[in-house]
Design goal:
This protein is an alpha+beta fold and about 280 residues long. It has a single domain, classed as Beta Barrel (Porin). It has three helices and ten strands; from the N terminus they run αααββββββββββ. The protein has a ten-stranded antiparallel barrel with strand order 1-2-3-4-5-6-7-8-9-10. The chain is globular, with a radius of gyration of 22 Å. The chain starts with a helix and ends with a strand.
Length: about 280
């Protein structure tokens, strides 16, 4: 597929995801309230349990064992499959592709040396997001790959701003910080997962637990496909974020566009992303 057609198809797909509905007013206020206030949804009482005795069955124990094994397999698959497909044990760094290189892959630079005493590589981005209605965002992210045990320090921050219906504006900053393990990597792709914290900076700050999983992949020179999910808690409510981007690299820099979905309690934000990322 030609580069122009690929870009046009991606932009059209994101526009279809974002279009078709107007964003409800005061979404940032709803996020703020759900984070700092306990969930007050009414609970329904469970009906009284039957007093009838149930016969125990050995078949039930077998079923429990089968479903337990099935659950463990489902949890392990997102890690085992990329590991066996992509991992190269001798590959200890993941660097940016350089268009000046003749070979397809990630370019080694002199910015970070290959050693066990310092940083091996890093990636940083700045981006703008919009839902083409009332909400805009400005975000930044930094990932620092350490040569020890394939660990990565991962941190991000996004400031959301919303135009209010009656005039004026509202703003809210969300972010996370994680310690990530690169469980599968080679010169073309890296898969990572880890744990950390979500945080909110506002009149009342709050934090919560975070689980993250994502990858970067070079399918063909000079394109980069990246995806990531964050799933956890923030204050008194749940948080889920999923994003996918497609970028084009030139030397150590990448220009990309993509889509991000954020779900916090009853608020769902869908934004289209435009950003620049540097690979060192």
């Amino acid at each position: 597929m030609a580069p122009a057609r690929l870009s046009a198809t991606w932009l059209l797909a994101c526009a279809l995801l974002l279009g078709g509905r107007a964003a409800p007013a005061q979404q940032l206020s709803a996020i703020r309230d759900s984070v700092v206030s306990p969930n007050t949804h009414p609970t329904t009482e469970e009906p009284p349990r039957s007093r009838k005795t149930r016969r125990r069955s050995y078949d039930g124990c077998d079923d429990d064992s089968f479903f337990a094994e099935l659950g463990l397999f489902a949890l392990a698959t997102p890690y085992l499959l990329p590991y066996y497909m992509f991992d190269e044990p001798c590959c200890d760094r993941f660097e940016s592709y350089s268009q000046q290189e003749t070979d397809h892959g990630f370019k080694e630079t002199d910015w970070f040396c290959r050693s066990t005493e310092g940083v091996s590589s890093a990636r940083g981005l700045v981006e703008y997001g919009t839902d083409f209605s009332d909400i805009d965002s400005v975000g930044a992210k930094l990932q620092v790959d350490l040569p020890v045990a394939r660990m990565t320090l991962d941190a991000s921050a996004v400031e959301y701003s919303e135009r209010m219906v009656g005039g004026g504006s509202d703003s809210l900053t969300l972010g996370d910080a994680n310690l990530v393990f690169r469980f599968a990597q080679n010169s073309y792709t890296v898969w990572r997962s880890g744990l950390g914290v979500n945080w909110m900076a506002d009149a009342r700050d709050d934090v919560g637990f975070n689980f993250t999983y994502g990858f970067d992949y070079l399918p063909s020179k000079p394109y980069v496909v990246s995806a990531e999910i964050d799933w956890g808690r923030l204050g008194e409510t749940h948080l889920f974020r999923g994003r996918t981007t497609v970028g084009v690299q030139w030397r150590d820099f990448e220009a990309y566009t993509g889509y991000e979905y954020l779900d916090i309690e009853s608020v769902e934000l869908s934004t289209m992303l435009f950003g620049v990322r540097g690979w060192w």
